[in-house]
Amino acid sequence: MNSSCDDKIRFSVVKMFEKLIDDKTLSLKIEKGIYNYVIRKSKEKNIKRFWSNKVFKDFYLTKIGSVYSNIKQNSYIENVKFLERIKNGEIDPEKIC
Distance from the CA of 5 to the CA of which of 12, 14, 39, 93 falls in 20 to 30 A? Predict the structure, then answer.
């Protein structure tokens, strides 16, 4: 993967989660869990793991959106206890997917 693009995309996602939950460490762990999930599933489905690959990038961004919508307490999903369950250790942020 192109590390500068990789860093830029992933950094912006961490910042987005950090703004939502006000916890940098937790935001990093959530993003890492999502990224690792997307990498693992991409390998299983023979998806090339490059940011320049639209399928891979869309898969990552879709998963980000899904998790973000579940964490955001006032989203249309109304999963109001999800963030609380992550913060209290009931859900491992690195295994969120």
Answer: 93
